[in-house]
Amino acid sequence: MAMKSSSADGKTRSSVQIFIVFSLCCFFYILGAWQRSGFGKGDSIALEMTNSGADCNIVPSLNFETHHAGESSIVGASEAAKVKAFEPCDARYTDYTPCQDQRRAMTFPRDSMIYRERHCAPEKEKLHCLIPAPKGYVTPFSWPKSRDYVPYANAPYKALTVEKAIQNWIQYEGDVFRFPGGGTQFPQGADKYIDQLASVIPMANGTVRTALDTGCGVASWGAYLWSRNVRAMSFAPRDSHEAQVQFALERGVPAVIGVLGTIKLPYPTRAFDMAHCSRCLIPWGANDGMYLMEVDRVLRPGGYWILSGPPINWKVNYKAWQRPKEDLQEEQRKIEEAAKLLCWEKKYEHGEIAIWQKRVNDDACRSRQDDPRANFCKSDDSDDVWYKKMEACITPYPETSSSDEVAGGELQVFPDRLNAVPPRISSGSISGVTVDAYEDDNRQWKKHVKAYKRINSLLDTGRYRNIMDMNAGFGGFAAALESQKLWVMNVVPTIAEKNRLGVVYERGLIGIFHDWCEAFSTYPRTYDLIHANHLFSLYKNKCNADDILLEMDRILRPEGAVIIRDDVDTLIKVKRIIAGMKWDSKLVDHEDGPLVPEKVLIAVKQYWVTNSTSSH
């Protein structure tokens, strides 16, 4: 264990190596009473904990505050000999996205946006170094200030301030970017635009909770839905609009790098209450309506699709759009035709906005069974989407027994649906998972999160805005944390035994499928806290633990926190790896005591920025 000097004597005490199978927690408490934090505020924390009395579930030797600076941890000589030190990558990799690398992308075909899809580096080209933060990097502002302001040093790209100047997307002011809340289709502000949508779509009562924003720009739509308790999953490609998804995440808005191309979206069937395209440049009528069919797959029965911009109201706007009216007319005809085939009902069209609603079941759509254009998907598993080719086929509704029954089950309004038994559970759709097992899982996660808050009292204070759960299960961790101050990206690994992401969405939470043998579709430094429950046990012998931890480091902000829950043998191996990664860490017992073989590894990433002399 690394020990640093107290401020009283200013000298470094001897490092002490201790391994005890039983509880280390109280030892950490005693140590923390005099230990100086690596970030300069440890004395006050130690004094506070001394005054409050010993609590053996607290880890006072880790500082979870943000100070924008840090020191290297001290490792004992015998331990250092075994530690593999990971060096910083070169400064040119500060915004490296391994599976959306611009240079690699340009080697792929441009047809159907193939070059903007995921193309991960082969094993021999993987970086085995730590992605640096840019010079001057600071912790983002807290929400809600972060909605409107982003530090320039964190994403130093001014192109959008020029390109989108008249559309009110983003402005550069001094050392910050300001986001006025405008967009291409809502230059007067997202709030007024959403008010217009809300006159048709029931956003106020919790009926609409989850949304998908395709081609999101800087995600102002999702940002301004937050106050209405709607959670939007936004995506946009890494393209000429440099860093738009990075800006979204710096603002504290859920977003991933993604595109509608040739591969299915990484979301489950019947996930979203509404989907949105605001001048997103997706050719909705192309490929026999394939992209609309994919939106239909992920849209819940009764859900809404919003199209804002071309070709809606083309008769009035074709001159302003500088496009031939014949092309726009044909584009709208194809969209209307595809929507009719999907059995969507058009609810609204005014100005440049049109809104359709998906039927609650197939009862009103019987006539399309005889339509030769209605090609129904044959797959037994409509959630099997990872790297699967998109098809021009209609995903069938689940069967119903009456004309007014909601296919797949009716959801309660939010927040009631968060802790209600989801239809996928109550119907027995997930083999081997009973209602009792689901409710027990919820109880366990409430207990775990309560223990986490004793370890890190800043967990739900707003210190951590963007949170990721790398192996989310039913979303119990996110549900126990649910707050207006934060959001959780619930990741369900593609190799997980059971597909539970549909349950996550039925709870009113958001998430995504992903394989952790590859890099996640995000920019570096986009998450404040990462949680991993038995992830390393799951991926044992599947891929290299070093690569998973390096990816965690890439997407974690400086001074961000990590919570890893796993069996003790696995965590000891993980702890040995992260000792070479500029992380400070402590291993603590399960909340039920030292005899439980499951332990918790808590870590904090040190603050450091790029050094132009690094050579990797």
Walk me through the structure.
This is Methyltransferase. It is found in: Endomembrane system; Golgi apparatus membrane; Membrane. One of its GO terms (molecular function) is methyltransferase activity. It is a single-pass type II membrane protein; Single-pass membrane protein. One of its GO terms (biological process) is methylation. With 616 residues, the chain is of the alpha/beta class. Among the domains are: 182-370, Rossmann fold; 416-605, 3-Layer(aba) Sandwich (Rossmann fold), CATH 3.40.50.150. The chain is built from 20 helices and 17 strands. It has helices spanning 25-34, 42-52, 77-80, 102-105, 145-148, 159-163, 190-198, 220-225, 244-250, 290-298, 314-321, 325-341, 416-419, 423-426, 435-455, 476-481, 501-506, 535-538, 545-555, 568-578; strands at 149-151, 171-173, 176-178, 210-214, 231-236, 255-257, 272-278, 299-308, 344-350, 353-358, 466-469, 487-493, 511-514, 527-533, 556-567, 583-589, 598-605. The strands form three sheets. The chain has a seven-stranded mixed sheet with strand order 6-5-4-7-8-10-9, with helices on both faces. A seven-stranded mixed sheet has the order 13-12-11-14-15-17-16. The chain has a three-stranded antiparallel sheet with strand order 1-3-2. Strand 2 (171-173) and strand 3 form a beta hairpin. The chain is globular and about 70 Å long. Residues 1-58, 69-81 and 612-616 have low confidence and may be disordered.
